[in-house]
Amino acid sequence: MLMSYFASLNPASFFNALPSNIAQGLIWGVMALGLYITFRLLDFADLTVDGSMATGGAVTVVLTTNGWHIWAALLVATLAGVCAGLVTGLFHTKLGIPPILSGILTQIALYSVNLHIIGSANKALSVDKYHLILSSRNITRAIIAAALFCVVVIAIMYWYFGTEQGSAIRATGCNPAMSKAQGINIQNMKLIALCISNGIVAMSGGLLSQYSGFADVNMGRGAIVIGLAAIIIGEVIGDAVLGKHMDFKGRLTFVALGGVIYYIVIGIVIWLKMDSNDLKLFTAIIVAIFLAVPYLKAQSKNSFRRAAKRGAMMKVSQDSSANGKEV
Amino acid sequence: MLEIKNVHKTFNPGTINEKIALDGVNLTLHEGDFVTIIGGNGAGKSTTLNAIAGVWPVDDGSISIDGIDVTGLPEHKRATYLGRVFQDPMTGTAATMQIDENLAMAARRGKKRFLRWGITSKEREHYRELLKQLDLGLEDRMTSKVGLLSGGQRQALTLLMATLQKPKLLLLDEHTAALDPKTAAKVLSLTDKIVEENHLTAMMVTHNMKDAIAHGNRLIMMHEGKVILDIGAEEKKKLTVEDLLQKFEEVSGEQFASDKALLG
Fold first, then answer.
1. Looking at the domain assignment, is residue A115 inside a domain?
2. Above 70 in pLDDT, residue B260?
3. How far is A160 from chain B (nearest CA, A)?
């Protein structure tokens, strides 16, 4: 039976699906770059992204089908994401709601907002009727376009977080007390970072809706976990490849590549004929493993059990040497 | 330079944990004053510094720095006038950022932060010179993350950051308390040097009476949220630890309970 299972796996079908996985991975790479701003630089676990991703898709599809130019639609989608981030930021900074809860509130509110934007649960965007930036119809073009988006977002982030304001955002995430003592308005920095982050996430939502040819209120469900998977996988692999040479540019590049690697892994799982209903479960397990590995590594170097073993070993060797002298 | 008038602060008012931290503090500092502040635990030393820095608004009274009333200004706005070094070496620097980035952050204290590049090569040269003067070898590690530095190195760096842009007032909140004695002595002599060279006005909270006597040109003692003793430059020169203990008993009418102060 096992033989027949392996015989049924066709390597060609995996390679056929590969380009599509790469294209989707790059689009999610853009999303992961946006999430990186809050998750790593600001140290703010922002759950807004599940909502703002879908908002980006919804705005893009609705405006395009209403005759807007695709680039204008994508720009407005990005701005819609900025507004979503602003709402979360205001919940947190002005109303004192903890970060995770602020994000959840905006996310749940956006579900209704997105339904209003689309007018129903989903809406199609046909590549035959509209000039889209990318589409699954032409995968080569989609890969190039998505890769260009990644490159531009990385370049802008690299520049911005090297400026005075970007540095102030990084300092806010690292040490709020120090930032205040250095005259940084940390509330404003949090607002700005959340806006930029969700703007980028919504933009990737806009790209995803073009790629898949529709927008759906549920398209952002679990986005944060996929984004985290991309960030963490990218960082782990980046550290392994670049080691000490890992700088901010390299880190961002690997975060974007993390999205691609994630989708290739998903491609392998589907190729292995795993039930696609289990994909989210599988994603959660991957993220949990990658999050746990650095912790467990540190723990194993630092465990009481090992200390006890080392102590016992030392005692044994001392006892035996003492016995040796007696004899 | 600094004028504190009748400042009150009560923490957790109306609850079982109510604590009157500042109970009518009055203090005037002149330009070039280097004041050391001593007192037992809970006397209001650090609280006074926090009140000046604007960590929270005071309940009553006013604070002005160089003629500017800052009572209503939040912490990040008051930072324009203040240099601060904290007790915990982790507090004053950003661990995941480079040494030069931390300095660049401090160089822009009180200025608008826009989209100019966060650090220029000219600045880097300047920082290299300043770090050389610390004599800790940090000038060769400018792109190292601050998290890799020792507590003493971080305090020295924080001190440099606090004075990179001349502050109207330097606040030192037990900034050597977390260091070993040798490192503490080094950071203290560095403090003296920086204060002297830049003609700074400074306030230094300490638990160590010897340090309080050896440094600065004025000494104040706090007790139960009030300034109970203010010793000027001439009198301070002749002051001994025994004198201080005796004075404390005279003024407060009780034995100075802090072991730490006695051991100092």
1. yes
2. no
3. 7
Q: What is the pLDDT of residues A234-275, one digit of tens each?
A: 998 998 899 888 889 999 999 999 999 999 998 888 888 888
Across the interface, do A183 and B101 touch by the CB < 8 Å criterion?
no
Q: What is the ipTM of this complex?
A: 0.90
* pLDDT (tens digit per residue) in A266-314: 888 888 888 888 888 888 888 888 888 878 888 887 888 888 888 888 7
For residue A167, the distance in angstroms to the closest alpha carbon of chain B comes to 6
Number of domains present in the structure of chain A: 1
CATH number for the domain harbouring residue A49: 1.10.3470
B113: tokens are 């932060």
Q: Which domain holds residue B162?
A: 93-167
Q: Domain range holding A186?
A: 2-310
Is residue B164 classed exposed, middle or buried when 0-12, 13-18 and 19+ CB atoms within 10 A define those classes? buried
Q: Is residue B192 part of a domain?
A: no
pTM (2 d.p.): 0.90
Is the alpha carbon torsion for A175, A179, A185, A188 positive or negative? negative
> What are the tens digits of pLDDT across the range A85-118?
999 999 999 999 999 999 999 999 999 999 999 9
Do the Cβ atoms of B118 and A182 come within 8 Å? no
**Residue B16's CATH number:** 3.40.50.300
Write a three-state SS string for A240-293. Answer: HHHHHHCCHHHHHHHHHHHHHHHHHHHHHHHHCCCCHHHHHHHHHHHHHHHHHH
Q: State whether residue B121 sits within 8 Å of chain A by CB.
A: no
Which among B76, B95, B161 is the nearest to A174, CB-wise?
B95
